[in-house]
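Chapter summary example: a protein plus S-adenosylmethionine.
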Amino acid sequence: MATSEWTNSSVSKTYARWAPIYDLVFGSVFEQGRRAAVAAGERVGGRILEAGVGTGISLSYYKPTSRVFGIDLSEKMLAKARERVREQGLTHVEGLAVMDCEKLEFPDNSFDVVSAQLLVNTVPHPLVALEEFARVLKPGGEIILLNRIGADKGARLAVEHMIQPVVKKLGWRSEFPWERFEEWLNTSRYGMHLIDRLPMPPLGHFSVIRFGKHAKS
Ligand SMILES: C[S@@+](CC[C@H](N)C(=O)[O-])C[C@H]1O[C@@H](n2cnc3c(N)ncnc32)[C@H](O)[C@@H]1O
């Protein structure tokens, strides 16, 4: 699918529809992956950006001593996150803001960790988003993704292409092969490298992926 057909406005509309039932549908199925991503972020520590925080489903997994800022394109998803923060008294959440992760309103080197769970496959220009994450990340910091990795070739790739028009209406892309991440690593201006990639349920098609930004020497 041409990325030009994929717009922030279509994404916002789709997630406005998901907001009331999102946690019910996508809560427990991705819990292990979200918890693993949160734990990886807390091992780095410092200031954490949760990009595409959605309903704030992962915010309750952080320790009270963490410092987390959440952003999302969808006001309706974010309203759920605000409710969660208020009801659960999540004092580690420094702020929540409507923001496009392809145009982050933060200066360079603002965060020790950028965490994005199930986000990269939903944005119009995934490599632009990844490069923005790298920009706002401090040297020595980590980008931590929970992401579905699409097939590189074969029958699974053919199926992913076939179902893309339907899946797009639900708010994400079915195909996103590992080579897109490699393309980004090879072209990034910020000296990014892969740290590791850990398969996660369901079906092992998802991974927690850690990228590091080289510390200044
Ligand atoms: C599949 S949901 C993931 C939500 C949450 N991170 C989770 O673990 O369930 C994708 C989220 O990304 C948000 N999103 C999509 N495009 C975005 C963009 N360009 N900037 C910020 N958020 C975006 C959507 O509004 C939605 O809340």
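Key point: The mean pLDDT is 92.
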